[in-house]
Amino acid sequence: MSTAEGVAAVGGGQDIEAGRCGDLAIEEEAEKGQRGVAVDDRPRLTHRVGFREEGTTPNVLVTGCGSLLMPLQEGGFRQLLGGARADVGLKAGKHYFEVALVSASEDFGLQVLRLGLASARGPMILSDGDVDCLALDCKACLQRGQARREGARPFECGRVFAVVVDLDPGSPQSNTLSLFCDGESVGEALPLPGRLLGQALFPAIAFRGMALRVNFGPEALKPLPPACGRMLQQAA
Fold it and tell me: How far apart are alpha carbons 198 and 207 in whole angstroms?
């Protein structure tokens, strides 16, 4: 990797923009195929997308090569929200990432899971009132949506959530964020705030009372329809 004035190039002519804390932002300009699937022969991203310690709050442990997020549980730490922001951000195209529940507290009221995007200047912990991020509350979405099975709690171990980031100007849902659970759509797509348009947007997570495995690809745990784009690790 070579860098010059805040810009890094990774093999194959991939264009990457540096952000805060060494974050990387990728910009994809894809042509459309007959089925709406991006046709792009450029080499894929070689940097392994994940989380770094500087991209998490102090109460979050990052293991598993940057893909496993575990909160501190001792004493009062279990009451705190943990936050994490990925080291690669999107500026164009349609991509998604997955979050699987590895373990969850038996205290249902303690459980919190928000998935979304944040700009380089955004908060480390996703919140509804900050203009530099957009968050989907997974518990609220499941309680309103059809993906919740009768008698089942939203945060059962093994559940896989997916966040689809649509930054494709030619898409009917351009500049939106969508949530899936176990391969099924949950609720309506959320539009990106105007302040976030045109910025590098980094996958971000706020959570409490659970341990998470975050999958950026290239292979999905619960594959989504082709119209949802490709996984983040497959970006060009």
Answer: 27
Q: What's the rounded mean pLDDT across residues 13-22?
A: 39
pLDDT in tens, 66-119: 789 999 888 888 889 999 999 999 999 999 999 999 998 888 788 899 999 999
User: Which has the higher per-residue pLDDT, 165 or 143?
Assistant: 165
Q: In what helix (H) or strand (E) does residue 141 lie, and over which residues does it extend? A: helix 138-144
C-alpha separations of 127 from 82, 110, 187 in Å:
12, 17, 19
| Total Cβ atoms within 10 A of residue 210 | 21
- Rg of the chain in Å (alpha carbons): 17
Three-state DSSP state, 232:
helix
Q: How many CB atoms lie within 10 A of CB 118?
A: 29
Structure tokens at 202: 């980094």
Give yes or no for residue 234 having a pLDDT over 70. yes
**Which one, of 85, 87, 83, 134, lies nearest residue 112 by Cα?**
83
- Please give the C-alpha separations between residue 43 and each of 36, 47, 80, 185, 217, in angstroms, as whole numbers: 20, 12, 41, 30, 15
**Separation in Å, CA 193 to CA 24, 116, 136, 137, 159:** 21, 12, 13, 16, 28
Rounded distance, CA 228 to CA 164, Å?
A: 6
Q: What's the rounded Cα separation, in Å, for the pair 50 and 59? A: 17
